[in-house]
Amino acid sequence: MEHPRDHAYPGHWEADVVLRDGGTARIRPITTEDAQRLVSFYEQVSDESKYYRFFAPYPRLSDRDVHRFTHHDYVDRVGLAATVGGEFIATVRYDRTDERGLPASAPADEAEVAFLVQDAHQGRGVASALLEHIGAVARERGIRRFAAEVLPANAKMIKVFRDAGYTQKRSFEDGSVRLTLDLEPTAESLAVQRGREQRAEARSVQRLLTPGSVAVVGTGRAPGGVGRTVLRNLRDAGFTGRLYAVNSAFPESTERLDGVPAVRSVTRIGEPVDLAVLAVPSDRVPEAVEDCGRSGVRGLVVLSAGYAESGAEGRERQHALVRQARSYGMRIIGPNAFGIINTADGTRLNASLAPQPPARGRIGLFTQSGAIGIALLAGLHRRGAGLSSFISAGNRADVSGNDILQYWFEDPDTDVALLYLESIGNPRKFTRLARRTAAVKPVVVVKGARHSGSAPPGHTVPVTRIPDATVSALLRQAGVIRVDTVTELVDAGLLLASQPLPAGPRVAILGNSESLGLLTYDACLTEGLRPLPPQDLTTAAAPDDFRTGLTAALADPGSDAVVVTAIPRVGVTGTADPEGAGALATALRTAAAAVPGKPVVVVHVEIGGLAQALSAAANSGPGRPAPPSPAPPSPAPPEEIPSPDPGAPAPALVRVPAYPAAERAVRALAEAVRYAQWRRQAAEPGKVPEFLDDAIDESGAAALIGRLLGAAPGARRVSLTPDDAHELLALYGIPVRPTLPAPGPDEAVAAAARLGYPVALKTTAPHLRHRADLGGVRLDLADEARLRLAHRELTETLGSAVELRPVVQAMAPRGVDTVVRAAIDAAAGAVLSFGLAGAPSELLGDLAHRLVPVTDRDAAELIRSIRTAPLLFGWRGSAPVDTLALEEVLLRVSRLVDDHPEVVSVTLEPVVVATHGVSVLGATVRLAPPPARDDLGPRTLPSY
């Protein structure tokens, strides 16, 4: 392409976006080669829209207009176009102006902005997306305000500006409305942007899962094969829409295949097609995508393999596939996908290779692996669980787990979200979406490739450097239930989909095996629950005994959940109970239905058919799990529970999850307890205390950071000197106890005289720093003689003063040594970590983590989350330390890295927490140019 010579073409402004109706468009800068596209676009705009744009009849563009609208310097004059199929559907431009409204250059910081949207695409949110992108471009070029002249009758465009969330002013001049928008992002504009993002991405997934018509491209003429299998599965599932078999090799005489209309190309179908399933070799996929794009197909499921999972050449094919599909406004599931399923009665879609579609249920399942998808579908089916939807994304080149979360968030048919992930392309966005979704329904995740440090083949996503333990902690902070295996994923999903959330950790245990009850009791303690003494019903217990015992346990206000343990009943004759599993299942389900509000799980050993009987379809479908409440409803005391009235209608039976081992049942229950607690806390989120503002000099810190980075131009990362680090931290109310160099004993004595005795003598050599166990730290030196002796011993034992670099520091009050760290990950964002200094954090990895910004509640939880936390709260009779002062340090560090993204690393070690106050004895700070924050920019689809 030819571009103006003075400024290079800004390729980083190109972006794919999802529009309000779920389709996609390409946004890019307008170039000199777009003249014919612009003329063609303008010819398709109505006279009314032209009038609104130019305030007068303007039937066609002159050559001068075309030149002006296609020649930009990409600084003071910028034009962007939204395209579908390579053709313009909307344009936006700005021209920098001075205070008189005349053309200007920097430092002028205002620009006139104007839009034009083709009438056929109005109402799709195109103008809103263009405003986000042109606003980001303008901020990059130093423009802070947009001004727009709009006719009062142009209500649609006025609404675009009004709904954007930016600070704006409005005035009436010469019969038009003049709008002025401050382009600095606000909390409202960010909320508006994310709300639009959620609705658009959810709609794009909904279009894929609820098609009115499906074409299977690559349907074989002979039985068997991938395409023919998918066609059969769609037909056998009872798909409610129209089906088409497509194969370019069909003879002209072929009109139907397996009772479905057969055509040689999608363009020959002659009516709209919502979804195309591609089952052709990878070298024929581009032709099929072109055929679908020209026919107006709205989405693709690409089952074909041979893409990024096969190497560099396949990776380039995958990129080309995404570019081609998006150019036509289509989204893709795949390639290398297993397929999608929607069990809703109005759709009944099985566009997958699964021969037996799952029953209808309340669980949504997303997987990045076809093999794992097969296993999960089989496991859920075997245990009687139904699904609302299933998506196997394969290489997830386009539609990802983030998009599916957007859809499930508002899907009334999904109560529980289960995800098997092998990579997280945008952890920052994933945790944001997961937190919002988890506030209304459980999100359970198992992540593969946890320890390999790289994404599996085919997943061309950024790789985060954060350790897996940190990722797990951050997911739990967002309310995600993180499990380790696909078995645990199913275990947790079954409980959460069928049972209410527990109000607390108190667990009643009852059953007909004392030993199994004790195993369950131990498992509860291991998982941090509070089990009540097991109730032994004896091995002779009949189903009625179980019903009575479970009813009483559920009615007991001292319990929050019940675990029923069962082994095969043996009668007096020594033979197995002929009543079997059915009677026991009915008894347990009847009791659970009679006293609802608490979760019930069953642990059974060798009772064939019990799990199936407990999960059999109920009299009415299971409803949404009840939200957690501070306390369960107050039932009548056990002795007052009336016997069932034979004449009263029986309550609808409920599904009860069953597990073959106590540990599995209790682990699933414990996850539900922790999730319910998170839900209660999330209802009242913490905040950053306002008192911090009085002690923070944000502008002073920004100036210092700018000066320090400016002194090292071109450096990727700058490690601050101790003096500079201490100065920066002091601007955020974090004083660091000063140290003075002590290269010789005389200098050490002089330093102690300045600081005051008692003092500490420490080495600062990297290999000895914070290593008191190696003798590099001498404490409580009360006078000159002891200081000189310590200095001599230090240099004689560990090396010369030049090598050791000893310093003197005033002694801090005795307390618990801790470490506070903050680090920036380009993908996940800023992470704050806390632990005890030394072996607990370094050897045992006993660290807790939270995403920045940290609230007062986060800080309190951070301190209490480590395993060695009891040392801070008076373990074995020691005095509790000042954890409130420690929380304040955590909040101040969080605020520092949140305010200044140039601060990429902070380590405070040790932070000595005494009974009153804290002392920061050492600090290191690193600066770097701030990483890009794609979550704060305009909406855009990832381009991996």
Fold and architecture overview:
34% of the residues lie in helices and 22% in strands. It has 944 residues and is of the alpha/beta class. The strands form six sheets. The chain has an eight-stranded mixed beta sheet, with helices on both faces. β34 (816-825) and β35 (829-836) form a beta hairpin. Residues 1-5, 572-576 and 619-644 have low confidence and may be disordered.
**SSE-based structural type:** alpha/beta
Strand content: 15-25%
Largest β-sheet summary: 8 strands, mixed
Helix content: 25-40%
Keywords:
34% helix; single chain; 27 helices; seven-stranded mixed β-sheet; alpha/beta; flat
What topology does this entry show?
Blueprint: E1 15-18, E2 24-29, H1 35-43, H2 47-54, H3 63-70, E3 77-84, E4 87-97, E5 110-117, H4 126-140, E6 145-150, H5 155-162, E7 167-173, E8 176-182, H6 187-209, E9 213-217, H7 226-236, E10 242-246, E11 256-257, E12 260-263, E13 275-278, H8 285-294, E14 299-302, H9 312-327, E15 331-333, E16 339-342, E17 349-352, E18 360-367, H10 370-382, E19 387-392, H11 401-410, E20 416-421, H12 427-438, E21 443-447, H13 468-477, E22 481-483, H14 486-498, E23 506-511, H15 514-526, E24 530-531, E25 535-536, H16 543-555, E26 561-566, H17 580-594, E27 600-604, H18 610-615, E28 658-659, H19 662-682, H20 698-710, E29 718-719, H21 722-730, E30 739-741, H22 745-755, E31 759-763, E32 777-781, H23 784-798, H24 801-804, E33 806-810, E34 816-825, E35 829-836, H25 839-842, E36 847-851, H26 856-865, H27 883-899, E37 903-913, E38 918-920, E39 923-927
Helix pairs in contact: 6-11, 8-9, 10-14, 11-12, 14-19, 15-19, 16-17, 22-23, 26-27
